[in-house]
Amino acid sequence: MLVVLAGLLVYVIVLMFTTGYITHSARNIICKVVSPSTKDDETLIKNSADYIFNCANIASIKLVRLLGSGIHKRTYLGEYGPGTKVAVKMLGKPLRKKILDEIRLRMLMKEILLLQELKHRNILKLLGFCIRGDEFGSETLNNEGALAVYEYGEEVHTNISFFTQMPLQQRLDITLAITDLFIYLENSPLGSLRMRDLKLRHFLWNNNTLKLIDLDGNWQEPSCQNNDNATCEFNLTCVDGRCVGYNAKSNLLNIKNLLLGRLLKNVDKLALERNATYHDMRWRRYGIDALKQLILMLNENPNAQEVTFTWVRQRLLDGRSAL
Predict the structure, then answer these.
(1) Is 3.30.70 the CATH classification of the domain at 168-322?
(2) In 3-state terms, what secondary structure has residue 283?
């Protein structure tokens, strides 16, 4: 099994090279997969420039309860130090017998590699990881062969009134932060990322904002025939055989329900109801008109070519500055 594991690591690294991953990420993962020396935890943490947790100190986390489980992984609430909460993800036992350990390990390592390259304040932060063997399903931090530690965040998708109870300015700030996140993913160091599925449950509440927890997606934009833009949806331009901008547009269509149904719900009406002098109201009308235009376009014509995350961002800035 160890031979298979070693072969799998080589396969993953080669796969990262062929799909555009930056070389130093593979070197970093090789260094961190090697079993740590017998140095004490404090020295290891001090020498680690990137992560708080590694194979030497990860067992100091106390598992509190199961947060959730999927086909490939399980996530636990953990505590470290004086009540600091973290999320611990490990492979555990597969829910389906046909799913091989190699496949599940590959997916976890892909997630780790992605988080090494993608750094944004609205992506849940990786705090450390340990890959040290072929024992999966032990459900103890001392023996589990592959696990990773993340920031802890609260679920909000089950709370219908979570956002509507927020102050208007805070809701606009969160909407702007999410918009900036997807502009970053459109122009990330790895290329443009199209998320496979986008729902509110893929975000957690951490440090007074929403953070994305799932980076499973597609880096390739649809192929097309050069000089034939009719082959691209949304009237996009075909460049070098790819429909440039498709990933971002797809993300916007997927995320618009979160923006409209949660964060932007009735914000134009709430802005109108706020007390203001006549002079202030004239300026505020400008912001309200920008928000109304944004909501209308997202609701009725999101496929329009000009409706991009950058366009959304400008409408939000116009609205927020006037309110």
Answers:
(1) no
(2) helix
